[in-house]
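In this section we walk through a basic example: taking a raw amino acid sequence and producing a predicted 3D structure, encoded as discrete structure tokens. The instruction is simple. Fold the sequence below.
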Amino acid sequence: MEIPVIAEESKKKGIDIVGTGDILNPKWMKHVKKETSGKSLRKCKETRFLLTTEVEDQNRVHHVIVFPSMTSVENAYSDFKQLSNNIRREGRPRINAGGEKIVDVAKRHDALIGPAHAFTPYTGMYSKHDSVKQCYGEHSEAIDFLELGLSADSRMASKISELEKISFLSNSDAHSPWPYRIGREFNQFNINTLNYSEIEKAIQRGPKLNVGLDPREGKYHRTACNSCHKKYSLKKALEKSWKCSCGSTIKKGVKDRVNQLSDKPADKSVNYQYLPPLSKIIQKTVGHASPKTKTVQNKWQKFYEVFGTEINVILNEDIEQLKSIDPEVGLAIQKFRNKNYSFEEGGGGKYGEIKI
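The resulting token sequence is shown next.
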């Protein structure tokens, strides 16, 4: 996970712009400065980098911040340093303040801000609060976006009327730079000119298309036990006082949390495409336990050499052309595009299992 490697792998994936993450960490900030050039939208090789970070507030709620320039990052670092004991050593620093104060600091330095993986148990905004106002107070109108997280999608979020004017982003933590990790979820925008000002406007008005995992694959989608992963209805979990038969704790899932908060029908016009990474699709067709095996990666390389970026393969390329390279993989991609698959839903910290 270093900038030149992320840049190269993002190009293979088909991502034009990627967030740096962790930009408030002094060592990472230094690395980004060294390996990229430009003022607001930094560049390494052919990949552009937005200066981004994720911070945790005093209530353990996570927030994503997007900065307009390195100067803005440095000035925000000085302010946040007064409110944090671990900002020098952590990638995601703990800020000893609530959401309202964090927005205040972000806006002081012209940054964009929104809740990270908003519905996720433990650290999502809606795991601790019942509304945007409750989290961000007087600055709730200043929120620029809401990050959905792997266990939710834009249709689910559209059932909550207070989110009607907030754009939804489908992002994902990378964990490693390889194409089966980076961009597991991504956003497609219409941008006239590739500069920060245009990207800022695009984020605020929302993506042309959200692409990501089916939320049922998310490890917190269903209400389930943290240890044995047995799934429960919300009613049954309440009856059992959130204690599983195995003795461990039952954790409320994103699906049930969204239903608790919803006050209107889902917006069926919302444009969200469910697509896992290509290596995961290939993995399912060959029956391997990992997307990293040589067989999977050799097949991935074939598609990459013929069609270019992974995103082009899974999202745009003609199915018959894909089948000419590998009939089974081509058919699997077709099924995903047409939502012709089933799921063993995820919950309690365990990812869901795709069944093609």
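Looking at the output, two observations stand out. The chain has a mean pLDDT of 95. The chain has two domains: 3-212, 278-344. In the next section we compare this with other chains.
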